[in-house]
Design the sequence.
């Protein structure tokens, strides 16, 4: 190798090194600014650690008794307020449904503390708060006019590669749809939705079986039933359902593809939540975690 070629290669290596260093500095700055942004959100939310902490997997789900609890303690209130109805276009008639009661769950008390109004003073696109206990997933939940904006902007509308945790733009903000999708980035610093890829491990799910979301409607507790890699054009990302059969087929897809065995099989009357993040293997697939909000029929 002559001297001229050696010099050219040396210059190229220097430029590559400088470019890589600049990119690392740029990404590092974004991570720091993103962390500061979400630390501020945490302060505004008013969240504190639950008192008398228990493993949330020990919480009692009461699907038989719809009587209001006698105690006025927050921890014994139903996790979810409000009512919902099955799709008239599918059932042919209206049937009243409501979320199953959940009691004795310390994370319920914690989530009731979320100050959504304080967060909305910064950004009116805040529709709620999402949390998975014992993970870094503890963020404001946004909904934009499309699914692009919050990929590159933090919850306080600062341009940043860490983005936000956000609801599918066409989904109902009150989480009343049969299927709701929430998106978030997988980052090398292990923040945002990075932890949901750990649900490929059975032990990880056993210790963290629930997803909590607080909105104006109340506090929703979803139980995770499936986790797997899904193509972005597959049934996993379907939002419109015209029949009960289509709903059942959608549920079956998730249960069949799941890499963890939860023993939980949703019913078509339940509401399904899908959390979606990158796989790190291109743009054709995503890693998803699916959970159900258990619903029960109300006798009139």
Sequence:
């Amino acid at each position: 190798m002559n001297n001229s070629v050696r010099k050219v290669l040396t210059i190229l290596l220097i430029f590559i090194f400088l470019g890589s260093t600049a990119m690392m500095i740029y990404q590092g700055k974004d991570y720091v600014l993103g962390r500061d942004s979400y630390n501020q959100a945490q302060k505004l939310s008013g969240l504190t650690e639950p008192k008398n902490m228990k493993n949330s997997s020990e919480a009692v789900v009461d699907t038989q008794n719809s009587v209001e609890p006698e105690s006025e303690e927050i921890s014994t209130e139903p996790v979810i307020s409000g009512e919902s109805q099955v799709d008239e276009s599918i059932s042919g008639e209206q049937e009243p449904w409501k979320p199953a009661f959940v009691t004795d769950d310390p994370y319920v008390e914690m989530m009731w503390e979320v100050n959504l109004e304080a967060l909305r003073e910064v950004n009116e696109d805040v529709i709620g708060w999402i949390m998975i206990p014992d993970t870094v997933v503890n963020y404001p939940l946004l909904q934009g006019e499309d699914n692009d904006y919050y990929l590159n902007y933090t919850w306080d509308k600062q341009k940043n590669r860490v983005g936000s945790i956000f609801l599918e733009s066409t989904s109902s903000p009150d989480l009343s749809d049969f299927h709701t999708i929430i998106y978030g980035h997988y980052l090398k610093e292990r923040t945002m939705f990075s932890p949901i890829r750990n649900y490929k491990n059975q032990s990880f799910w056993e210790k963290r079986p629930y997803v909590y979301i607080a909105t104006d409607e109340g506090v929703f507790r979803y139980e995770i039933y499936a986790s797997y890699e899904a193509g972005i054009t597959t049934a996993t990302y379907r939002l419109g359902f015209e029949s009960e059969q289509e709903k059942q087929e959608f549920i079956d897809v998730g249960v069949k593809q799941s890499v963890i065995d939860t023993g939980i099989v949703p019913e078509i009357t339940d509401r399904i939540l899908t959390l979606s993040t990158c796989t790190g293997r291109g743009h054709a697939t995503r890693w998803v975690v699916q959970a159900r909000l258990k619903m029960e029929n109300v006798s009139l």
Notes: The chain has a mean pLDDT of 79. The longest strand covers residues 218-231. The chain has six helices and 13 strands. Residues 3-45 form the longest helix (43 residues).
